[in-house]
Amino acid sequence: MATVQICEAEKVYIMHGVRDDLRIDGRACDDYRHMEVETDVVSNTDGSARVKMGDTDILVGIKAEMGRPRPLIPDEGYLEFFVDCSANATPEFEGRGGEELGSEISSTLYKMFQNRSSLDLRALCIVPREHCWVLYVDVLLLQCDGNLLDATSIAVKAALFSTRIPKVHVSEDDEGGKELEISDDPYDCMRLQVEDVPCIVTLSKIGHRHVVDATLQEAACSMASLIIAVTHKGNVTCVRKVGGGSLDPESIFEMTETGKRVGKALHAPLMKLLQEEEVLGKRRQKVGFLG
Amino acid sequence: MAGLELLSDQGYRLDGRKPSELRKVQARMGIFTRADGSAYIEQGNTKALAVVYGPHEVRGSRSKTLHDRAVINCQYSMATFSTAERKRRPHGDRKSSEMSLHLKQTFEAAILTQLYPRSQIDIYVKILQSDGGNYSACVNAATLAVIDAGIPIRDYVCACSAGFVEDTPLVDLCHAEETGSGTAVALALLPRGGQIALLQMDARLHQDHLDPVMEAAMTACRSLGQVLDGVVRQHLQEVSILTGE
Amino acid sequence: MLKSKTFLKKTRSGRVLKVVREHYLRDDIWCGSELCVECRQESPPPPVLQRDACRESSLCASRHYIIPDTNVVLHQIDILEDPLINNVIILQTVLQEVRHRSAPIYKRIKDVIHNASKHFYTFTNEHHRETFIEREQGESANDRNDRAIRTAARWYSEHLKKAPDGEELQVILLTDDKGNREKAEGCGVIAYKCEEYIKSLIGSPELMDRLALCTDDANEITSSKILFPEHLPLSRIQAGIKSGTFLQGVFRASRDNYLEATVFVQGDGDDGTEILIQGLQNLNRAVHQDLVAVELLPRNLWVTPSSVVLVDEGPKGDEDGDGDEEEQKMLKCDASESMLKPTGKIVGIIKRNWRPFCGMLSRSEIKEATRHLFTPADRRIPRIRIETRQASALMGQRIMVAIDGWPKSSRYPNGHFVRSLGSAGDKETETEVLLLEHDVPHQPFSQAVLSFLPKMPWAIAEEDMRNRVDLRKLCVCSVDPPGCTDIDDALHCRDLGNGNLEVGVHIADVSHFIRPGNTLDQEAASRGTTVYLCEKRIDMVPELLSSNLCSLRCNVDRLAFSCIWEMNHNAEIISTRFTKSVINSKASLTYAEAQLRIDDTNMNDDVTRSLRGLNALAKILKKRRIDKGALTLSSPEVRFHMDSETHDPIDLQAKELKETNSLVEEFMLLANISVAQKIYDEFSECALLRKHPAPPPSNYDILSKAAKAKGLVIRTDSAKALADSLDMAQVEGFSYFNTLLRILGTRCMMQAVYFCSGMDSDFHHYGLASPIYTHFTSPIRRYADIIVHRLLAVAIGADCTYSDLMDKHKQAALCNNLNYRHKMAQYAQRASVAFHTQLFFKSRGIQNEDGYILFVRKNAIIVLIPKFGLEGTVFFENKEKRGPRLLFDEEVPSLTVEGHTFNMFDRVKVTISLDASNIQHQKIRMALLEPVYRREHVPKRTTGGCAEVTREVKCINSS
What we know:
- Chain A is about 25% helix and about 30% strand.
- Chain A is of the alpha+beta class and about 290 residues long.
- In chain B, the strands form 2 sheets. Chain B has a 5-stranded mixed sheet with strand order 1-2-3-5-4. A 4-stranded antiparallel sheet of chain B has the order 7-6-8-9, with helices on both faces.
- By secondary structure, chain B is of the alpha+beta class.
- Chain B contains 4 helices and 9 strands; from the N terminus they run E-E-E-E-H-E-H-E-E-H-E-E-H.
- The interface of A and C includes residues 43, 66, 173, 183 and 185 of A.
């Protein structure tokens, strides 16, 4: 899925470069490509973000809807993920072509948030057992040039950061029936604490070394990859080995260490950028797709 | 609720436009590097993205191949978050399939397909945000993307919607107007020859009113044509500066 | 192409949907003032706000424009409608808020804005670059709107200052909100309280009376005693209705008893249930026609509707009425379990349906008082307390008053004076009152309407002849009541020579002159029908059309829509043809003249032969129709003979029907049925038809009982059975009995209504026993006929269609209006007859007449005087003194008074007089002369309580 085909010579060239810590686009093994993040790009969502990482381009929109809490966790809201691998990204995705990749990415996202430390889901509860907010996190793949998971996780975090959920006032009448009233004041809204939301770092094993943020060509040279979800404190919330090849425990340990280091470093500039955007507020010149 | 007053006595619409005024149009070509052609357009709050791949060999079954011209393949989809109420699927519903078909017909009329026999041109459009006139935004975006891909076309294909409220034709309807006015006409025009590439009307409209509504939509399409032309020229200028000429 | 100058977004969160709308700000919105030179664009509309906006005010000496805020528009619309108030700027913000809060006021303010002489300008401030503001953090929507109003007011005053000689022009903000006023003054806007400003106007003190009372003022004038339970807030009501604890319905006050009302709760489909409300507390300030929420009382508190007549006599000593309690006790009566009705109490008002009410002032006992009670003419409306300083001038006058509010501490609602209609008892005033009370539009036609009339002198032009056949050579004539100037229909009949006859019905081609959608058409559609009062006609279309160009007068060429049949001598239709035509009527006859011609064997001209042919066919048609089960019911109709000098009625006489009446009627029915079939075949979804539903069997109970008392059986299982058994019902030596039965039959019927064929499935016309029916033959006086003409014209390709004609929802809405107008016209007509009857008896003094008992009630009998077609009630009890011993048997029904039993259809002798003791409600008083029962019963005020005269002018068949 979303792969390129390269010849043996090219492969050898890439692998030799990685061995010497110099990749074809001039990066070192644990460097990310240039990244652009912008939030609040789709005005009719409750939160949205667009992330460009090289030629990989991802748009995330979040819509909050009212729903019923899950019976087993009655005092929490929940997130629903949907990844749309659209034909815009590559003609291969036309029709139902993108569904497999889409569900793979979304299942990774579910796993990443399947713990209490990532996001305080209790804040999404309105009336226990009756009403809660359901956040529909919809990821739209616009262009892919490798490393979709990292870009997606960053975009999701940015979008969650920008999400504004209207405040709900619960009033109770005599008969005990609950009346939900949604504030009509556009300023009266709830924000999410996204500090602890992890980002995914994908490490691709190329030859004897591993690289982060592999482009499509590099991915074609990699036998196997490890994905690690890391929080800003360096905590790992999820580790998965993906790809056809196998990895020895030694290199998994090494890759985890690199992942933690790189992942931890990823959060700080992201949060800084988001906060800067936040401060600008309405004065910020929105670029969107017109830039 | 009292319903919305679509046209005030002073002649202003809900968003402050006059009946014959378009929404703010902004567009950009060449936003993706991996595709052969791409464009993005904003018509007010309706935002569409179009990507063109091709002409290339016919994918999938060979039986689709046409010996005298290119196959136009279109897919229309909407981002799940594009509408006020979240959509469950981006494409594959009846409405999207219908839109895909309309786009295909529109661009078969515009692209010089006979230049590329036995090949295929893919046009993929995506609505990122929807506020009425989805079809028009898609057509306009696709036109720019086709031009960006360097595929020869007869003329710009410009599309615009129009409705009829209080005996006045309104052009470029926003979502509230589209749902409130009852009738919406979508029209795609090749402005130079005045040829209509597509005309679609779903609700009832008295025959007496069809002419003024179509006339208004065509005028709007022509103005849109000028905007698109400006976008293309500006893009060429930017590209030529970048390539250092 | 014009792009938005600035671009801002407004977010509205409704439920969970986030709706984003664009909001364009413009810099080409004009301020509308004559003074301004700055913001004029190419081809501007004429300025609305005048250079010399002059109103002398002690607060503001210079010229000024007024900007009212939303609440001022909502509450003081009467003031704004006054011609004295002009040069007003209505902000878009205000207009939108008004639109959300009150549809009737929104319509009124829009009417004012459209009136060019008022100089009201709507400023689109929300889209103006300099006056648009965004909602700030922590600001409520209302505060934001108030700020928007202030911003616009400030912009105006600064903007106008820049204009040449605009320095002294001021802009005044009117607001009753104290906080808003202070803030406005803080930012340099002149702001006054509405009351303060109106008071300051020099030379128009009468405006003061029209000021609506603000709620805080209202509290002062009543005692702090809480008289009524609090109304629930709308959210609770809605929740209650949803959960079923409350019911929603229309409040209908009782005409006879001010302490009783019913709430009509609409059920599924046509049926609904009525809930009884009794007592002031339970009525809880609801006013007739309000949409209310009711809570049902537990079953043990259910009561029966009392048959007592109670009139709110107003304050008795203590203003807050302890007397009410006593009267409330009178309501209680023992009743069997089966008589109990679901009873409830009003818990809240969903929507008030207040309009200005006609009535009279009851002056306060205190001489210098400025607060007075107003008694509406409609007895279902409570008395209203108003404040006026011109009470002495208004005494004896009919005035209009609007309700402002009804605080829970006040026995009566508070209101304000709107205008005076003239002195009571005056014929003009009373006519005005009855037109207003029945919502009959009767203003002279506006210039805009008249502008669509054809230019005089008018003649048939070449293009008028397109799609039209020339029938001028035919011997056409018209037959109408004497004095008729709006002749809708004309007829002809000739021998075709092949053994068949050609019969034509020619109807005035009104739709030729009234083109769809123009102002003239809209006005006619809104009026719906011409209203005939006793000596006044309120035209649906301007007189030039109704009495001249459309009227099929004799010896002039007139455009017509013809329906032509070929018939054999057995009145069987061979073929039907519809065409637009030109005719030239040879004679306009009255029914009597036509009858004379038919009967006079010496006359043998074309017209007479034609009439005889028609007459022969009509008899066959009628017979066939009756055989099919068409009903012939009767209702006493009267004519007044007017004094030519004073225009007072000098004689009163029941209408007499001639053969020629039924001649015309038969052919009109035939034409209507033929046209109905044609338009329904052609437009099955949007044909405008008329139906007459069969009455529910229980309606006939009274008829059956009455017949049974005389040993007769009336079968009511079908129209045919009913018609036959009515024909059989004869009593030896009592020739009027059959007529009485038929009068009674009329009362059992349902109302015939217009409907759109696409919205209904039952088309049957019960009274005419026809499967389909419409109105085609009177387009001059009924709007429904105009629509039918248009449909038919399209069907035969003589005219083109237009969109509203084919829209079944718009047509259904039109039908609703037409049905409402027809009903109101009928009521107005009855009221007019009642008023003239009073005038007649006023001049005649006391009369003794023979009559028949039409109905028997619990405490009264209703008597019909055939000579005058007059119906009145004779009461046997009254509330001050103990009445005679009464025994009512519902089964017969009969009423036994001190041993004498009154049955239906008994012959009685009564004395009739006019009771003018209450100038507002003058009454015809009836009292019994024969038979004599034991106690005192002479026509003094002792026995007869009050007697109300009602009269039926209803004629279900021909209408």
